[in-house]
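Task: sequence design from structure.
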């Protein structure tokens, strides 16, 4: 006799398991989402067609197109044009700097993906801080928060808004228009920016000076970078670094070879070693002692550095330099280790240290899987670092102007973006159609090359969306959405409608910190709408509350991707985000519902 399991209980079980997987991060979020879809199909909670419907959902395709359009804007240097305004009007007072930066960046993120904007502006703000002798830790959290606030001004400012529009259409309320909640978005943006300008300079630490010594102060490499000399009877004599395998067998990187006052930078793997050669190496003391005993080298004493601390001068020259690079969210390096990637050979660069939030890795780095937001300290030939600036996997924090930008196409890409927005704004065509048409025109006009569109798409976001839409379908099919709504109505049915709106805002905001903004929207909007209709309240008001709460994530460095991007470069600690973000979250948790009731009714 077959065992019958209540569909609601089964769906709730899958939902709880999914939440646990998202929070524990046993797998990447996109893989978790697809796994959830597979489980739902196996259990019969969704049909195979419903299981793959997320890939053809208009919201998923629109998000994909907007990623590509943002890449076209970035490739043609449109955003770089405004950096001169930042330097010209920024001034010297932190409040003025935050107002000018937010005032410039916020409106840009109303139309361009905010992770792309942060990727472009992060090096610009770092350079600005260096020139004005400002601590970058004073400005990078405001940079991230300004893009989040600005992204809520239009439908296309963030993928979350587009996803919310798709859920609204599925529930029978139609797509959101391009400027559906623009007035609400502008008011919350202005209030948020004023808050940041007044309080962020007081609440944020002066932790990372603009002229900081990366090697010593920021990464503490004094005890990890040493000089060793090859003794006359060393077994290394006559061998190359490659054939000696000392870099493979030990946790060691040879940064430079010095012979008779001549300096030989990377690549030096095939240089034949001789007695008296001095090697500048990165490695722990224990590994150096092992090599000394096994291979016949002497570790030069600390007195060699007397009168000065280890700094970039020992690692830089006319050919060599030291730089920080950030692992981007769509990087192909994520999940692989430096050893698996053959990083040194691939980029002709040596990783000296890895900063992962508050954690600093300086030993046994070769086997550590890389993550989004990791900050790598590299030592490499200047040409290699310049070449990295065109990489889609890494962002060089201290960027120089590179010739790869198609600046002659800037006005074309800008016209295309304006046309995409304007045609959709006047309801002549859906944003899905105009954005896809914009992608084609970007390629035909040379703003983008065909191969670049695939690297532009955040495939983890696309698979996350495609994998989560079926979970919403399963909740609807099984009656779980209605069950949750009935229980919430029973609990809070005696509350005023405004406070129920506030409850959904707070619940969504918390869920976003645990999962992701897109996941929160997909899961929360159907429940919020069901509660609203049951209590004869305005369902659009509840959809807007959930949408805004899902994106306005300021409590942690992992709640929103732009927060993760500035975590390492700003030298922040985890609770720096909470210190600034919690008051902002609380302000918006009250202000946004009030504005929604005032603008759209309850």
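Answer:
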């Amino acid at each position: 006799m077959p065992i019958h399991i209540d569909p609601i209980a089964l769906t709730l079980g899958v939902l709880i398991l999914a939440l646990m997987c998202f929070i524990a991060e046993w797998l990447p979020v996109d893989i978790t989402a697809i796994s959830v879809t597979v489980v739902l199909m196996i259990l019969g909670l969704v049909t195979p067609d419903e299981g793959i419907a997320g890939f053809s959902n208009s919201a998923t395709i629109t998000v994909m197109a907007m990623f590509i359009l943002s890449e076209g804007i970035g490739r043609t240097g449109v955003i770089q044009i405004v950096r001169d305004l930042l330097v010209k009007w920024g001034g010297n007072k932190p409040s003025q700097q935050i107002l000018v930066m937010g005032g410039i960046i916020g409106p840009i993120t109303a139309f361009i993906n905010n992770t792309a904007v942060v990727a472009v502006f992060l090096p610009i703000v770092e350079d600005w801080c260096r020139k004005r002798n400002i601590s970058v830790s004073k400005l990078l959290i405001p940079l991230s928060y300004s893009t989040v606030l600005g992204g809520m001004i239009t439908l296309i400012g963030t993928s979350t808004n587009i996803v919310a529009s798709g859920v609204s259409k599925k529930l029978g309320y139609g797509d959101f228009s391009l400027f559906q909640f623009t007035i609400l978005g502008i008011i919350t943006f202005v209030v948020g920016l004023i808050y940041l300008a007044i309080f962020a300079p007081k609440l944020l630490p002066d932790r990372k000076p603009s002229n900081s010594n990366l090697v010593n102060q920021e990464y503490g490499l004094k005890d990890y970078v040493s000089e060793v000399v090859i003794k006359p009877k060393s077994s290394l004599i006559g061998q190359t670094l490659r054939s000696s395998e000392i870099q493979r067998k030990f946790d060691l990187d040879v940064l430079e070879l010095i012979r008779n006052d001549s300096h030989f930078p990377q690549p030096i793997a095939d240089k034949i070693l001789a007695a008296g050669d001095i090697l500048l190496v990165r490695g722990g003391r224990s590994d150096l002692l092992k090599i000394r005993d096994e291979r016949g080298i002497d570790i030069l004493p600390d007195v060699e550095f007397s009168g000065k601390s280890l700094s970039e001068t020992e690692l830089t020259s006319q050919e060599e330099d030291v730089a920080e690079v950030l692992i981007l969210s769509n990087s192909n390096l994520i999940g692989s280790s430096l050893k698996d990637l053959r990083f040194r050979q691939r980029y002709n660069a040596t990783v000296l240290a890895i900063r992962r939030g508050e954690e600093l890795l300086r030993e046994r780095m070769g086997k550590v899987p890389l993550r989004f937001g990791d900050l790598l300290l590299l030592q490499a030939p200047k040409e290699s670092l310049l070449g990295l600036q065109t990489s889609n996997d890494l962002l060089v924090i201290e960027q120089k102007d590179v010739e790869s930008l198609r600046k002659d196409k800037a006005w074309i890409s800008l016209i295309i973006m304006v046309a995409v927005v304007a045609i959709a704004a006047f309801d002549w065509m859906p944003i899905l159609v105009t954005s896809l048409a914009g992608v084609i025109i970007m390629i035909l006009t040379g703003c983008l090359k065909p191969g670049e569109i695939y690297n532009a798409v955040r495939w983890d976001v696309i698979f996350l969306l495609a994998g989560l839409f079926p979970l919403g379908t399963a909740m609807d099919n099984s009656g779980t959405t209605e069950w949750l709504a009935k229980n919430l109505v029973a609990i809070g049915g005696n509350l005023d409608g405004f406070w129920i709106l506030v409850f959904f805002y707070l619940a969504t905001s918390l869920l976003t910190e645990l999962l992701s903004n897109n996941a929160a929207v997909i899961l929360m909007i159907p429940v919020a709408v069901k509660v609203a209709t049951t209590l004869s309240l305005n369902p659009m008001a509840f959809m807007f509350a959930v949408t805004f709460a899902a994106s306005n994530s300021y409590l942690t460095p992992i709640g929103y991707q732009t927060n993760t991007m500035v975590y390492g470069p700003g030298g922040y600690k985890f609770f720096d985000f909470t210190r600034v973000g919690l008051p902002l979250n609380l302000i918006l948790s009250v202000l946004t519902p009030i504005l929604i009731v005032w603008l759209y009714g309850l």
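The two ends are 50 Å apart (CA to CA).
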